[in-house]
Every structure is written in structure tokens, then in C-alpha cells.
Specification:
- The chain has 216 residues and is mainly α.
- The chain has a domain of 142 residues: Tetracycline Repressor, domain 2.
- It contains 9 helices and 2 strands, in the order ααααααααββα.
- The chain has a two-stranded antiparallel ribbon.
- β1 and β2 form a beta hairpin.
- The longest helix has 27 residues.
Length: 216
């Protein structure tokens, strides 16, 4: 699955072939076909496995007893690392339409379950006034959209590792940027103006024929 995800990312799903994946995995084509009927099945398993990891991270965040801001930050870290450190995760949120209808329904159902769970955490933060937003759905989709887009611009050969990138560019404010509310929870302060941290974005090489690019 890791080899398949690398090939999907480098060549694009449409141009990728089972032979390419077999070579990347150091297998014969016949051996690969013994386990997977085609590249769409490999894509499904990549997506399904990654979503299982995200749902596990969500369960941990929901069950924890610490401050909500810290639980959301931990969830954001695990989400990003699933996409850029666990190689097959980079295929988790793309090419869904390439799946067969039955497979697509299963993936979309898991993806929707994950979004609902994150939205419940965000809504709880809004009720407790530890998060500032007007609408939980918009805030959740902004939050998840920023996390998911990491898989588009991050390249492992950039100047920052996956671990360093998630530490230096937090989705949520750091402890120095929060204030205490009347119930002891922490709420965001307005952060000081600062330029974006996007070293791995600004120093990317130009895309080649073997590398796909995407527009938002």
C-alpha cells in the first residue's frame, strides 16, 4: 500500500499501472495480482486504512479529559502525520471518484463520520467559549481543509521533516496565545502578526511529468 500510494502521488491515479506498483514494491506483477485485483482496490485499502487511523485519533481526543484546545491540537498533529508521515495516508482524501460505487460509499461514510466527530468537538468548544467562531460546521471544514491540504504541498525532500513541520506550523494557537476564561478553560487571544511558515512549500522544485499538481 505504501508503494501504491507513492506511485499514485508521483504519476497520478489514472496514469499509474499495477506493473509500476509492483516494481515500487519489489514484487512481480503476478504476486501483486494474487493479493489485489486492481489498482482501484489498492486505492480503497489506502483510503480505508488511513480513515481508520483518523477515527482512532478522534476517539482518543473525544475520550481525553484535558483542555479541549490541547485535545484538538493533538488531533491535528495526528491528522497531519497520517497524511505526510504515513505514506499511504497521502492518498486518503483524493481520487475518491475513481473507486467503484460500493467502495466509494464506504469511504465517504467513514469520512463523514470523522467530520461529524470533529464538528462535535468544535461545537463543544464554542459552547464553552474556548474557541471563537460563529458556526461549528464552517469552522470544522476550515480546520480539516487546512490539515488535508498539507498532503498537497508537503514533500519529504524539503528542508523540514514531517515531525518538524507539524511542530512549527500548529493549526491551533500555542499556549502563549491563550487566555483564561471564568471557568478555568483556555480561550484564544488575538495572536501577533507573523509571516507564514511554509518552508516546504516555498522551496519545492517545479513539478515534472512524474509529479502531479493540484489547484485549490
Amino acid at each position: 500500500m505504501r508503494a501504491a500510494a507513492r506511485v499514485f502521488r508521483a504519476r497520478g491515479f489514472a496514469a499509474a499501472g499495477m506493473r509500476d506498483i509492483a516494481v515500487a514494491a519489489d514484487l512481480s506483477s503476478g504476486n501483486l495480482y494474487h493479493y489485489f485485483r486492481g489498482k482501484d482496490e489498492l486505492l480503497f485499502f489506502c483510503q480505508d486504512r488511513s480513515l481508520d487511523r483518523l477515527l482512532g485519533a478522534l476517539r482518543t481526543a473525544a475520550a481525553a479529559r484535558g483542555p479541549l484546545r490541547e485535545r484538538l491540537h493533538a488531533l491535528a498533529v495526528r491528522h497531519v502525520l497520517c497524511l505526510i508521515a504515513d505514506v499511504e495516508g497521502s492518498a486518503a482524501h483524493f481520487e475518491v471518484e475513481a473507486l467503484a460505487a460500493r467502495q466509494r460509499r464506504a469511504i465517504v461514510a467513514k469520512r463523514d463520520r470523522y467530520e461529524r466527530g470533529v464538528r462535535n468537538l468544535v461545537a463543544a468548544g464554542l459552547r464553552r467559549r474556548v474557541l471563537t467562531a460563529r458556526d461549528a460546521t464552517v469552522a470544522t471544514r476550515t480546520f480539516l481543509g487546512a490539515l488535508n491540504w498539507t498532503a498537497q504541498w508537503f514533500r519529504p525532500y524539503g528542508p523540514q521533516s514531517a515531525k518538524k513541520s507539524r511542530e512549527s506550523s500548529p493549526i491551533l494557537p500555542s499556549p502563549a496565545c491563550v487566555r483564561r476564561t471564568h471557568d478555568g478553560e483556555q480561550a484564544p487571544r488575538r495572536p501577533a502578526a507573523a509571516g507564514p511558515r511554509a518552508d516546504n512549500l516555498t522551496k519545492l522544485p517545479h513539478a515534472t511529468n512524474n509529479e502531479t499538481t493540484h489547484a485549490g
